[in-house]
Every structure is written in C-alpha cells, then in structure tokens.
Amino acid sequence: MRGSVRPFRSWLRSSPHVLLKVSGGFSSGDKALCVAAARRLQAAGCRVSILCPKPFRDTLHRAGVHTPLLSLDVTDAFDGTATLDEVLEQFENLHRYEYHETLKSFEDVDVVAIAPGGRLLDGYKVTRHLLIPALAQKLGIPVVYLHQSVGPLTSPAHRDMVQQTLVRAALCVTRDDISFAFLRELGVPESRAFPARDLSFAETYPANSHSPTFDLGINLRIGFNGHTEPDVLKLFLKEYIRRKPDARLLAYTTSNPIPAPLADELRLLACTVEPDCVEYPDYVRAAGRCAVNLSDSFHGVIFSMMAGRPALALQPDFGSWKLHGTLVPGQPSMETLPGFVDAPSARDILDRALSLGENPGSVSEKQLRFVEYCRKRAEDGWQQAERAIHNA
Questions:
Q1: Exposed (0-12), middle (13-18) or buried (19+): which is 17, by Cβ within 10 Å?
Q2: Residues of the chain with pLDDT under 50
Q3: How far apart are CA 322 and CA 327, in angstroms?
C-alpha cells in the first residue's frame, strides 16, 4: 500500500491534532455522542477535525461545535476480504479518489479517535467500520477507541480483523462489562483496555420541569437494525387502549425516522406521532414528556432514566449486549425484553407497561441510582481516554 510511511508526526505539540471518526446516520444517540466527544476533546486542549456523515453537520452547528468537518462517502462493505491488508488494498484500488482524500485528512493528525458507539458487531458492515482505524495504524498514527460496545462477532474474519485493530490501539474504552470481557478475550492488554459506561451518562441536557403530557411513550426503532413488527405493535396499542381508554400515547424515535405509512396507521390508533429523530439538545426533555417510556433504543432508555421517567428496555439493534452488559454493583443486570416481535412478547410488554404506570416509584429510584453510577464510570473512562490521547 502506497503512503504507508508518515514523514513527520507533530508529537512535540502541546495541543495534539485529533481526527474524530464518527459513524451513524439519523440516530439521536450517535449525534449526542459526537457532540460530547468533540466538546470534550476541545476542552482538553486538542485541535479537532471531525470525519462524519453529513446528517451530523446540522447537529454540530446547533451545538456550537465549530471545527473542520470532513466526509468519506464509501458505502462498500468490502465483502470477501479476509484481512485488513486486503481491505486497504481494495480501498486504494477501487476507491482511488476517496483513498487519497482520506490520506489528505490524515496530514498533520497526531491521533485518530473513534467516536463513542458500537458498530463492531454482527449485523453492521464491520469491515467498513475498521477502514479508518486500520489505515491510521498502517500509517503509524495512534488510535484511541472512545466508550465502545464490541461484539458479538460470529464471523471468524471479522473477529480476526477486529482483534488486530483493537490489540494495536493505544486504548480501548468500553461502555459495558460484556464488551470489556470480550476485549480481554480477544487479547487486548489490560493496560490498554478500560471498562467505563456510555459517554452520554456524563452529559447534561435540558430537562422537562412539567408533569408528563403522555401516559406512555413508545420509542420506536424501525429499519434495518430494528426488531419491531408493525402488526405486533398495532396489536399492543389496540389492547393498551382497550384497557386504558383515556391514555395519551406518544410514538417517537431516537433511532431511525418512522416511515410515513406506519405513522399514519399509528395516528388512527389515537397516537400522537413524531416521526423524525429527536434532535440536540432535546433528548432528555423529549423522554420527560412521558410518564413511562418503552424503548428499543439504547440511548432512548438512557434519556428516559436521565429524565427520571421509568423505562422498559427492549432489545436494541441486532444482538447487541450494550444494555444488559451495563452493570451496577449490587443490582441485577437490566432486563431487556425481546420487543414487539410476536403476540406473547406484546402481551408481556403490555402488562409490564400498565403495572409500571401504576407504580413507577421504586423503578424510578433504582434507575436514578443507575444513572449516577454510570455517570461516574463514564467520566472515569473519559479521563483515561484524554490521558491516552495526550500520551500517544
């Protein structure tokens, strides 16, 4: 691969230049994490450039984050590759313009930071998400992974490539304990792995100071990485309304926009529908409008707990263990229900949602303790990351 030797690294600078690599699209959580990481890097004295999808730009502008923004328009999954060298060779040969633009974006960069999140698991295009860190490491640029969930990975090739990348990283901060154990299983040295919690726990967002407007909020993940069956969801809503005729219902999302045909059907079932993803900085305020929230969005659950509203957690994207792997000493792991996948699951969610609406107190207190513990662990992880970036 050409361009594999960096002629100069500006390690003498007191303010390292960090390229923050962001993945995602419309998700409220991904955007929240991008803003959190960018602001914290700037506060730590770093010069920051952000390599991000175009939908993030409005969010960053709204959040007052002013820094060079770059983009990489490569949708190739690099299928059929078995090694990182093959991935980088295909990138150079099949996407020459993007390859050379990426090399330009690395000029004068001291550290590549992979934004908090979780794309290294079955269901996502794992190889594509390794492209930037693998290229950076090939060029001798240190890589720091910020607050990640990693796994499960059943593909031997994906597992090997993830292992190669993470083992060579300057630091891997995880956001759940199962991911941390998985990193250790992959051979990431204990000195370069740190168990933390999702960085959003350590952020502060405007809260809703009023009483709930809605009895139930249904935070929906509709799309390629969701589990919700629309017919099962409608069955749930009909029965919920039958058992609680005066209920005020809100269907909203922090994952993917709700398709217009489904939004129309939900409105016919007496739901207020907000089809677009919640935007910065209204994450907690949006969840706070609902007395109880059901969510198959990881960050939807977090934002509900931060708002002091009890949340029923449904299985998030694919087989991710980021929810039930977020543990608190002295408390059982967070129960994660299958979601709106079949009629029995819908009936279980219905009974629990109605019960929680009648007796929210003990759950709310438990979840607030959960948030406080995770806030500290998230901050601890950030301190480790900041130190690694300055020492890389």
A1: middle
A2: 2-12
A3: 10
Q: How far apart are CA 17 and CA 46, in angstroms?
A: 6
Give how far Cα 166 sits from Cα of 76, 85, 140, 161, 228, Å.
Answer: 22, 15, 14, 9, 32
- With tokens 């000029």, the residue in question is 107
Q: Are 275 and 263 in contact (CB under 8 A)?
A: yes
Query: What per-residue confidence (pLDDT) applies to 4?
Result: 45
Q: What are the chain's domains?
A: 17-195 (3.40.50.2000), 214-374 (3.40.50.2000)
pTM, two decimals, is 0.94
The kind and range of the H/E element at 219 are: strand 214-219
The sign of the CA dihedral 388, 389, 390, 392 is positive
* Helix or strand run (H / E) with residue 231: helix 230-243
- Render 135-193 in DSSP notation, one character per residue: HHHHTT--EEEEEEEE-----HHHHHHHHHHHHTSSEEEESSHHHHHHHHHHT--GGGE
Buried-exposed string 304-319: b where 16+ CB fall within 10 A, e elsewhere:
bbbbbbbbbbbbbbee
Helix 84-94, helix 131-138: angle, nearest 10: 100
Q: How far apart are CA 320 and CA 336, in angstroms?
A: 11
Q: Which phi and psi (to 5°) does residue 276 adopt? A: -90, 155
Cα angle 120, 338, 175; round to 5: 35
pLDDT of residue 333: 85
CB atoms within 10 A of CB 1: 13
pLDDT at position 13 is 53
Upper half-sphere CA count for residue 148 (Cβ side, 13 Å)? 31
